[in-house]
Amino acid sequence: MPAVSKGDGMRGLAVFISDIRNCKSKEAEIKRINKELANIRSKFKGDKALDGYSKKKYVCKLLFIFLLGHDIDFGHMEAVNLLSSNRYTEKQIGYLFISVLVNSNSELIRLINNAIKNDLASRNPTFMGLALHCIASVGSREMAEAFAGEIPKVLVAGDTMDSVKQSAALCLLRLYRTSPDLVPMGDWTSRVVHLLNDQHLIVTSASTDLQDYTYYFVPAPWLSVKLLRLLQCYPPPEDPAVRGRLTECLETILNKAQEPPKSKKVQHSNAKNAVLFEAISLIIHHDSEPNLLVRACNQLGQFLQHRETNLRYLALESMCTLASSEFSHEAVKTHIETVINALKTERDVSVRQRAVDLLYAMCDRSNAPQIVAEMLSYLETADYSIREEIVLKVAILAEKYAVDYTWYVDTILNLIRIAGDYVSEEVWYRVIQIVINRDDVQGYAAKTVFEALQAPACHENLVKVGGYILGEFGNLIAGDPRSSPLIQFHLLHSKFHLCSVPTRALLLSTYIKFVNLFPEVKPTIQDVLRSDSQLRNADVELQQRAVEYLRLSTVASTDILATVLEEMPPFPERESSILAKLKKKKGPSTVTDLEDTKRDRSVDVNGGPEPAPASTSAVSTPSPSADLLGLGAAPPAPAGPPPSSGGSGLLVDVFSDSASVVAPLAPGSEDNFARFVCKNNGVLFENQLLQIGLKSEFRQNLGRMFIFYGNKTSTQFLNFTPTLICSDDLQPNLNLQTKPVDPTVEGGAQVQQVVNIECVSDFTEAPVLNIQFRYGGTFQNVSVQLPITLNKFFQPTEMASQDFFQRWKQLSNPQQEVQNIFKAKHPMDTEVTKAKIIGFGSALLEEVDPNPANFVGAGIIHTKTTQIGCLLRLEPNLQAQMYRLTLRTSKEAVSQRLCELLSAQF
Amino acid sequence: MIRFILIQNRAGKTRLAKWYMQFDDDEKQKLIEEVHAVVTVRDAKHTNFVEFRNFKIIYRRYAGLYFCICVDVNDNNLAYLEAIHNFVLNEYFHNVCELDLVFNFYKVYTVVDEMFLAGEIRETSQTKVLKQLLMLQSLE
User: Fold this and answer.
1) Distance of CA A863 to the CA centre of its chain
2) How many Å apart are CA A414 and CA A192, to the nearest integer?
3) What is the phi/psi pair of residue A416, to 5°?
4) Given this model, what pLDDT does residue A106 score?
5) Is A377 on the interface with B (CB under 8 A)?
6) Three-state SS string across A393-435, please?
7) Looking at beta carbons, which residues of chain B come within 8 Å of A273?
8) Does residue A521 contact residue A515 with C-beta atoms inside 8 Å?
9) FRET partner for B54 with CA separation of 20 to 30 A, picked from A243, A325, A829, A894?
10) 3-class SS of residue A765
């Protein structure tokens, strides 16, 4: 390969670039540039027609000046002239200028498009390449209008060279991304298999001569990555043979990771690991082969201790998604010590950040105390940039996995102590909600905040929490002379003058609550309220409170005081606003992985008791409680089509003919639906444009489902309207509540919708999720079954063999039993079967059935109206590759439905 | 997909900027400055990856030059890291130095287009790319 000499071919250009580089100051540079611009302008305007070489040189100089950051307002016409030159070098400079300085000057666009059209038709592969690269670089809508129809022809033409086809395919991809409505997919897909591969056209050329594509002893790493990625656009293959072959491939990749390296070069290991990480992504995407998931986890475990920082980082990141798979969660947990160590020793903050994410993802009831403690201790030294996020995570984990709420209270107070500035309102509102809702922790909370307030310098957030809690529950510790009412009051009041106005307002409310709780401190408090600093405070809010509270304490009888200042009623149970905050902070796309998943059915999601009516006679404590009540979002709208958004209403109406029709169920929807019967998280639907992911959790007869709509394109979805549809039969039995989502979904963005679910009575059908939106110029309409099935409301019941068979006999009416004998559709693997029965929701009873090959399970279906006990027995017959499944419940319809659902799983 | 490719020197001077999505000129300038700010503070013990807005930057440093590729968050980090190394500038310019990129800026674009197009990796065989570039060179 000949070395390229400096600016060869264009001496004038090289001289000019040297001049610019030699300029000592910005002024000198500008002067030199202006001189050059004047020179070029005069050449372009001169009478003498310029030859191609000079034109090329001057256009190239203009381009250089533009790239230095100066505006260029002429030369476009000369550049366009170069396009029709027959010399490659002139044409190339013309195209480069056009690609870099796109100008939507309509006259020029017509000329440019003409030149491109000529080159595309030239049959000269070099010229065709230049034209295609220009279209791919500019990728504007005008280009799409002009060429979206042309390029597929180039792509399929028999005489087009491979390298030109490569460019044409990618060019088409670019146009498809910017203007999908203009690319004639429908007409061409059947004719052009390549088009289906869109971005993967490198495939065709790569397969021909593999040795060219071996990179540091790794065969075709980029191609392998592309293919593994392509597979992630699809669900796991149904055909057992294909599935087996794929599993074999993935195992081979995992095996190769264990082989000694063929080279010590980092390029070798990077290329090999690029393929490995993509294979692991596919394994996680399929989320169906426990064996592969666990092997993937072990492999990543090795990387956690690797000397390459890149690998440690990627292993932490990848493990984070593995932690949310039911199959590999336990395996991930075994690496907890290594991850904690990473938190303490990694030098790169982004690696520590991944370690925090992973600890959060692997947290469950068994390791929550350890993980929360480690996060708290890390918080003391954590980088400022990630403190708030850690605070939110600790607060969520502490609440979610609290068995003992004293631990929860301690944790939150520690958070305030260590990182008070980063504790947002959501966090301290939440601790108050929880303390108010749980009477077993109120005394402890009062005692603890009282002790914490003793510190000479405590964070204002602690004063807020302390003031609120003592105002409500100070009486629970008033018996102890060390925390008598007067001491409590003086303690709080000693912080008063250091606090901001909102906190002072809150404290004034605490004082009036004290007047009710402790009549003996009433005179002291009245004195304080009466003082000039309160009654004549310059702040209107404080002054008004002082006046009103003083008056209230004077005129109201004890009974009235007691009624008005009664203890706050419990807060209605709702989604933790901290979680919402974390999602907002991290951006919707990244949080799905962090979003806690349901692994432990007994987890008390909100920690609160059943919702209580909010309207009692008690007057809520003025300021903070008003905020508290406003915490949740607006009341949920009934499930049904949300109203069309105001501004675009007219436009919607024009299309409402098509929009009002609900699409038939998407193909493959049934299969996907069945996959969710035994699991709660995963991808429900995916096509070229849209991905729908689900995460859900259920407890007794209630559930909550998070639906994630991902826009896979780079173009907005407009009028995006998901609608939940329950048939007339289903409606009385299943209550769904949700709120409309934002009608615009940006390209690459993900939006989330929460559905609150209540099972009123047993049901058979599933609700349908219909999604309508506009993409480019086209109307999209998709329907899928939403996997809310009766078994989701299962609570497992453990019982001994004797009890099981006794109950089994009690349910011996013919209507109570439903049996199904069917052929195995999947390999008959004991461990997988067990996982499925547990995933189905019933308890798996070991050593109950006299035949150890059989599986038996028991559980209770919770509905609002009733509870239905269920027993099940699954008898595999390996030789015949058959199963017999028997369900016994007290209700025929329930037996029938559960049997149907579970049969489809094996 | 690749959102943009930047080659910058330590001082922040751009030696190549190739954009695969629409940005206006002010936005491009802002991105260039931000990228420079996030990569130059990192040392050899750090990863070659940086979270960047809604994307991530995969970068590699060669002497005084930073090669940065901005991709989607779920793209394969190591594959792009090696795509940078596979970039044939070194072979094409025979031990490339910053000055080669300055004086031959208009050729660098051709090299990029051979290897990356429309935000995707177009061709990864160095042999093929060099053969094609040699052919184009002969057309001078």
Assistant:
1) 30
2) 63
3) -65, -40
4) 66
5) no
6) HHHHHHHHCCCCHHHHHHHHHHHHHHHHHHCCHHHHHHHHHHH
7) 78
8) yes
9) A325
10) coil
A331, A332, A655 from A362: Cα distances, Å: 10, 7, 47
Burial class (CB in 10 A: 0-12, 13-18, 19+), B49: buried
Q: What is the pTM of this model?
A: 0.69
Contact A251, A206 (CB under 8 A): no
Shortest CA distance to A95 belongs to which of A51, A54, A63?
A: A63
User: H helices within chain B, ranges in order?
Assistant: 25-40, 77-86, 89-92, 98-103, 105-115, 126-138
Angstrom distance (rounded) from CA A329 to CA A302? 17
Q: Residue A150: phi, psi to the nearest 5?
A: -75, -45
CA distance A760 to chain B (A): 41
Question: Which tokens sit at A603?
Answer: 């987890």
- DSSP 8-state assignment for residue A121: T
Which pLDDT belongs to residue A828?
84
For residue B94, the distance in angstroms to the closest alpha carbon of chain A comes to: 6
Report chain B residues whose CB lies below 8 A from the CB of A215.
Answer: 82, 86, 124
Residue positions counted in chain B: 140
Q: Between chains, do A88 and B77 touch, taking CB under 8 Å as contact? A: no
Residue B85: strand, helix, or coil = helix
Q: What is the pLDDT of residue A601?
A: 31
- Beta-bridged to residue B117, according to DSSP, are B120
Would the CB atoms of A350 and B46 count as touching at under 8 Å? Answer: yes
User: Contact A136/B79, CB-based, under 8 Å?
Assistant: no
Under 8 Å between Cβ of A523 and A485:
no
Residue type, A358: L
Q: ∠ CA A388-A391-A393 to the nearest 5 degrees? A: 110
List of residues 6+ apart from A46 with CB closer than 8 A? none
Do the beta carbons of residue A734 and residue A781 sit within 8 Å? no
Q: CA A674 → CA A766, A768, A895, distances in Å? A: 11, 14, 18
Please answer yes or no on whether B118 and A174 come within 8 Å at the CB atom.
yes
> DSSP per residue over A791-834, as a string?
GGGEEE----HHHHHHHHHHT-STTTEEEEEEE-SS---HHHHH
Contacts of B22 in chain A (CB under 8 A): 139, 178
Contact B103 A348 (CB under 8 A): no
pLDDT of residue B110: 95
Q: How many CA atoms lie within 13 A of A673 on its CB side?
A: 20
Report residues of chain A scoring pLDDT below 50: 1-7, 197-207, 588-660
Give chain B positions within 8 Å (CB) of A309: 45-47
Beta carbons within 10 angstroms of residue A326's beta carbon: 19
pLDDT at res. A661: 62
**Pairing, β B49-52 against β B14-19:** unpaired
Report the phi/psi class of residue B69: left, alpha or beta, with left for phi > 0 and alpha for psi in -120 to 50.
Answer: beta
The model's pLDDT over B58-84, given as tens digits with 9 standing for 90+, comes to 999 998 999 999 999 999 999 999 999
- Could you tell me the two tokens for A34? 């202006």
